[in-house]
Amino acid sequence: MKKLKLIDYNSPVILTFAGISLIALILSYLTLGYSNKLLFSVYRSSLANPLTYLRLFTHVLGHADFSHYISNMMFFLLLGPGIEEKYGSKNTLIMIAVTALITGLVNYIFFPREALLGASGIVFCFIILSSMTDIKNGKIPLTLIIVCVLYIGQEIMNAVFVNDNVSQLTHIIGGGCGCALGYRMGKKK
After folding, report:
1. Residues 57-73: pLDDT tens digits?
2. Is the domain defined by 12-188 classed in CATH 1.20.1540.10?
3. pLDDT in tens, 6-53
4. Residues pairing with 153 in the sheet
5. What is the Cα–Cα distance from 85 to 13, expressed in whole angstroms?
């Protein structure tokens, strides 16, 4: 029991999100994907269905398989604690919710035949946010410009040349959310 006291739950929003996502993934395996379709994917469905609105937020918790989960959570757990430390738990949760809502709405409106799930939009939001941590006195860090150029360039190339069922648009929107939210929250400080 003494050894457990040495472990610090250092980033409550990030760790809780990762844990809930793992539970959602296990639930998906146990239900043969039904829980992902019901709760953890966003797709065009009736506006009279209350789950339609819930899925606009919860789709970021769902993942297709362990490989998908691990690839998202590696970056999420690497970048998230620094973002939560800089912006605070409440603002980090707001950033996650806003990014989930925007990516969910874009998918719902513009891709009626596609289901979207996973935290990659938030991961790319965090990639951009982590590059913005050094904005001082209205100056834009060169590292932010380079990351944006490389990142957006890669996503455009993947969208044009790779048919891999990955939503590059979600990645770009997540990065845009990171830029806008980081700038807005950075101004408040």
Report:
1. 999 999 999 999 998 99
2. yes
3. 788 899 999 999 999 999 999 999 999 999 999 999 999 999 999 999
4. none
5. 10
